[in-house]
């Protein structure tokens, strides 16, 4: 199983093995006999080839895999889809014809040379005769079901990567961050826009820049300099690369080159240091001196590169500061205009004083009318003596309630004490009398006896 077919079977549910017989069959007759089945097969092939191209599994004649194009020169695509069981897909030409007709793929050169947006006028809106003639020119729609020739751009893949590009550059707000030379732009965005750390090819980047500048209005380019549009530029539809943009692009590219040179020189110095140490261990004086001399020259060049890079970084910082100042001044100007308009609507300080005075005057009139109405109505009088008498009656009733509660509490306490006394006397009555030969005072009183005497005395006194 080829790389392309293995990818489709493993990653696309439409290419499960149970569906392969239908997809590899000549289903062109289903266009009229079974339109739903025809549409399902065509859609499965288009989605499968699009996703495989974006993942880099479609065969290409160029060494680098292109992710936005399908190369249909020769029969490489058919051979990559061929299986021992089903052979080659018999209706693949019809699938590609549908894709071209619907504007889902288009010839590469036509895409690059178009001056108007590809969305300006859809191919599907053209009369069928014109479409048929155009398809025949690229090898589609003639006798049989042969594949077209050439490279075709897959627009769906461009849409996917364009969205990823917008998300990756949303934080680039300053002009310095949004401006690149063509080379620097390619180095910056060759990675990070595709999944699984894949890289865009040079053809992919050329197609992407054309798509983002012409069709998505995201980039501005003159062929050598690329600038990401700001929101203000997009609103005013300004598509000009200025002298400032050219200077920024050149400065950034030079800084990147110097950074790369410093990295190379640093590695070179490390390698020469290792070589010198190895020569010393081998007692090779000539090789050691040569390595050290080369190391010194590299260190000198590295120091110069770092000094130059530091100066360029200072210049870049000043440019960014100046750009920020421009934005600040623009914001202050717009704020001044807004405040002027608002103050004009207010009418100035004199107008505000007049409004306040009128407001106070009207509020005074309202108070005056209220006072007149209050004086004209019956006066509400209160008899202070009646209030005092009612208050004294309430106090007397409250004192009566408190005295009654205290009396009930006292009676309950006395009842409890009497009950305790009766209980203790009953316990004393149960005690046996003392023998007659034991005289009172002949023995010491126990605590129980003393308590009994006290209770008896208390009972007699209370009785």
Structural write-up:
The protein is 67% helix and 4% strand. It contains 18 helices and six strands. The strands form two sheets. The protein has a three-stranded antiparallel β-sheet. Strand 5 (219-221) and strand 6 (225-228) form a beta hairpin. Helix 15 (285-346) packs across helix 16. The longest helix is centred in the last third of the chain and has 62 residues, at 285-346. The termini are far apart. Mean pLDDT is 83; it is low at 123-129, 139-144 and 438-442.
Summarize the structure.
The protein is mainly α and 463 residues long. It has 18 helices and 6 strands.
Task: Give descriptors for this structure.
3-stranded antiparallel beta sheet; 6 strands; elongated; 463 residues; mainly alpha
Mean pLDDT, to the nearest integer, reads 83
Described by strand count, sense and barrel closure, the largest sheet is: 3 strands, antiparallel
Secondary-structure-based class equals: mainly alpha
Q: Which sequence of strands runs across the widest sheet?
A: 1-3-2
Uncertain spans, ≥5 residues at pLDDT below 50? Answer: 123-129, 139-144, 438-442
From the N-terminal CA to the C-terminal CA, the straight-line distance is: 125 Å
Shape by Cα distribution? elongated
Helix content: 55-70%
- Number of contiguous helices: 18
Radius of gyration: 51 Å
Number of strands: 6
Strand content: under 5%
SSE order, one letter for each helix or strand: HHHHEHHEHHEHHEHHEEHHHHHH
């Amino acid at each position: 199983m080829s790389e392309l077919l293995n990818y489709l079977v493993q990653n696309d549910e439409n290419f499960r093995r149970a569906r392969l017989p239908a997809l590899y069959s000549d289903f062109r007759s289903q266009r009229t006999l079974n339109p739903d089945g025809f549409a399902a097969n065509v859609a499965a092939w288009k989605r499968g080839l699009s996703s495989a191209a974006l993942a880099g599994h479609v065969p290409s004649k160029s060494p680098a895999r292109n992710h936005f194009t399908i190369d249909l020169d020769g029969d490489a695509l058919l051979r990559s889809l061929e299986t021992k069981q089903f052979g080659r897909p018999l209706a693949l030409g019809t699938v590609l014809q549908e894709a071209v007709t619907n504007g889902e793929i288009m010839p590469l050169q036509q895409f690059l040379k178009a001056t108007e947006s590809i969305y300006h006028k859809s191919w599907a809106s053209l009369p069928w005769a014109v479409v048929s003639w155009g398809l025949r020119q690229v090898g589609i729609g003639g006798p049989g079901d042969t594949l077209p020739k050439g490279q075709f751009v897959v627009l769906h893949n461009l849409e996917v990567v364009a969205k990823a590009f917008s998300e990756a550059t949303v934080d680039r707000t300053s002009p310095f961050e949004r401006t690149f030379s063509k080379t620097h732009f390619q180095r910056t965005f060759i990675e990070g826009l595709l999944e699984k750390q894949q890289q865009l090819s040079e053809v992919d980047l050329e197609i992407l820049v054309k798509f983002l500048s012409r069709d998505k209005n995201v980039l501005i380019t003159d062929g050598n300099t690329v600038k990401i549009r700001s929101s203000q530029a997009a609103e005013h539809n300004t598509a000009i690369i200025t002298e400032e943009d050219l200077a920024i692009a050149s400065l950034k590219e030079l800084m990147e080159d110097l950074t790369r040179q410093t990295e190379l020189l640093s590695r070179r110095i490390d390698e020469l240091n290792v070589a010198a140490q190895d020569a010393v261990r081998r007692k090779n004086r000539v090789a050691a001196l040569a390595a050290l001399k080369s190391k010194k020259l590299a260190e000198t060049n590295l120091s110069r590169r770092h000094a130059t890079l530091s100066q360029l970084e200072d210049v870049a910082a000043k440019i960014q500061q100046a750009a920020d100042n421009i934005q600040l001044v623009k914001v202050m100007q717009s704020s001044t205009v807004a405040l002027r308009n608002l103050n004009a609507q207010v009418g100035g300080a004199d107008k505000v004083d007049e409004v306040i005075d009128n407001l106070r005057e009207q509020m005074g009139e309202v108070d005056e009318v209220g006072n007149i109405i209050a004086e004209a109505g019956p006066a509400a009088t209160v008899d202070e003596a009646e209030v005092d008498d009612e208050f004294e009656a309430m106090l007397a009733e409250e004192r009566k309630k408190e005295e009654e509660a205290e009396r009930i509490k006292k009676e309950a306490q006395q009842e409890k004490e009497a009950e305790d006394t009766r209980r203790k006397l009953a316990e004393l009555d149960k005690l046996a009398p003392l023998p007659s030969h034991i005289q009172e005072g002949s023995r010491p009183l126990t605590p129980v006896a003393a308590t009994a005497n006290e209770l008896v005395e208390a009972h007699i006194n209370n009785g």
